[in-house]
Amino acid sequence: MPTASLPPLNRQFVAHFGEMGSKWGINRTVGQIYALIFLSERALNADEIAELLEFSRSNVSTGLKELQAWRLVRLRHHPGDRREYFEAPADVWEIFRVLAEERRRREIEPTLSMLRMALLEEPESEAERHAQQRMREMHDLIDRLMTWFDDVQRLAPETAMQLMGMGATVTKVLGLKDRLTGAAKARPASKE
Questions:
Q1: What letters, b where the CB count within 10 A reaches 16 and e where it falls short, cover 142-161?
Q2: Which residue of 11, 40, 102, 155 could cross-link 160, Cys pair, CB 3.0 to 4.6 Å?
């Protein structure tokens, strides 16, 4: 099947996902392979993927290995068929969770580890003390975000979606709390 056999909407998504993949730090081909698998109604084998996207079989194999390393595709076998088939998890929340976990493992944890090591060093100058203070601020923010992320990950997907939908409402409530807290502090000061 040539690429023309993909419906136009699917072709558009696959092309866009490939372009975005390069901005997210993955190869364009890998992004397109993932988009195709994500949209597919059934598991696809490497030959089908190569034919639909007009990629070489070796590029597809390399891309599938990368997607498996990221845990973004699952391997399936069909009875009586020696080929391997690939599918994306059906739940988009699970895809987000896996992607976030992998990013954390590959990018955030090494950064936190480096920051922890740097914070254990004894500063030898004012410049190092300043740098260490900035690193502490970065460490504390990342650590707090990861604690929050862990809390969100433990939520049921429905609850997490509700929480995300409350974003503006939570911001308004926190703003009201700040105004009330600020007003409460200002009143005693103005009475004296």
A1: eeeeeeeeeeeeeeeeeebe
A2: 155
Q: Which two tokens stand for residue 192?
A: 């004296």
Contact (CB, 8 A) for 123 and 134: no
Q: How many CB atoms lie within 10 A of CB 76?
A: 14
- pLDDT tens-digit map of 102-133: 889 999 999 999 999 999 999 999 999 999 99
User: 3-class DSSP state for residue 3?
Assistant: helix
Query: Which residues make Cβ contacts (< 8 Å) with residue 112, sequence separation at least 6?
Result: 139, 142, 143, 146
Residue 187 contacts by C-beta under 8 Å, 6 or more apart in sequence? Answer: none
Q: Which helix (H) or strand (E) holds 162?
A: helix 157-165
Per-residue three-class SS string for 32-48: HHHHHHHHCCCCEEHHH
CA distance 45 to 64: 10
pTM metric for this prediction: 0.71
Token output for 144: 């707090």
Sheet holding 44-45, edge to edge: 44-45, 84-87, 74-77
Amino acid identity of residue 39, one-letter, is L
159-183 pLDDT, tens digit per residue, is: 888 887 887 787 777 777 777 777 5
| Rounded alpha-carbon distances, angstroms, from residue 45 to 60, 67, 93, 159, 179 | 10, 14, 24, 35, 58
